[in-house]
Design a protein that fits this description.
- By secondary structure, this protein is α+β, with helices and mostly antiparallel strands.
- It has 2 domains: 2-71, no CATH class; 81-194, Fumarylacetoacetase-like, C-terminal domain (Fumarylacetoacetate hydrolase, domain 2, Alpha-Beta Complex), CATH 3.90.850.
- The chain has helices at residues 24-31, 39-42, 47-56, 88-93, 100-103, 115-118, 187-194; strands at residues 2-7, 11-17, 20-23, 62-64, 70-71, 81-84, 109-112, 135-145, 161-172.
- The strands form 3 sheets. A 5-stranded antiparallel β-sheet has the order 4-3-2-1-5. A two-stranded antiparallel ribbon has the order 6-7. A two-stranded antiparallel sheet has the order 8-9.
- A hairpin with a 3-residue loop joins strand 1 (2-7) and strand 2 (11-17).
């Protein structure tokens, strides 16, 4: 099942089939049913029952996808974590190449993007900051976690995945905060990090 976020009176949950989309708020009114209003609320639902409700929706409730304003699939996630160098080709072009033996001894570089300011939707313009000099983008696989958990064993990880989406990881590769009177060892890392979280950069 493909889900969408519809920009109407804030954000509404939508279901996509082919080139049509079902606005769940409208469907709920028409069917006299209380339906989840966003993807986070849907996580607590019985998905089999939800699928049955969607199937009950008449053809007249489905709208052309091209005419519906879409927002980010998960507009307000509680947390947005990303991995640096999570594809082999990108690792190679960044000169981070490691042997399989070395790969087993390291963990991914994890960083966070502020979800309240960086996330944008399909077709939203990406505003280049005034200090932008080397804007780069990476199309990545996003994993939406649908259950709370800690100390999860690797073999159980898939049980916590609600779905997948596409993420555009935008970066300013040459972030320059201005002249420094005293360079420090960690300056390059934090310059790289600051280049990751401009407004709309995800």
């Amino acid at each position: 099942m493909r889900l969408a976020s519809i920009r109407r009176d804030g954000y509404r949950l939508g279901v996509v089939k082919g080139e049509k989309v079902l606005d769940l708020a409208k469907a709920g009114e028409a069917l006299g049913a209380e339906l989840p209003t966003d993807i986070v609320a849907l996580m607590d639902w019985d998905l089999v029952k939800f699928g049955e409700v969607v199937d009950w929706a008449g053809e007249e409730l489905w709208e052309p996808l091209s005419e519906v304003p879409l927002g980010p699939p998960v507009p307000r996630p509680n947390k947005f974590l990303a991995l640096a160098g999570n594809y082999r080709e990108h690792i190679a072009e960044s000169d981070w190449t490691r042997t399989p033996e070395e790969e087993e001894k390291v963990t991914p570089y994890v960083f966070m993007k502020p979800p309240s300011t960086t996330i944008s939707g399909p077709g939203d313009p990406i505003v280049i900051p005034k200090i932008g000099r080397a804007i780069d983008w990476e199309v990545e696989l996003g994993v939406v976690i649908g259950r709370r958990g800690k100390y999860i064993r690797p073999e159980e990880a898939y049980e916590y995945i609600f779905g997948y989406t596409v993420v555009n990881d935008v970066s300013e590769r040459k972030f320059d905060p201005g002249p420094r009177t005293k360079p420090r060892e960690k300056d390059p890392f934090f310059d790289w990090l600051n280049g990751k979280w401009f407004d709309g950069f995800a």
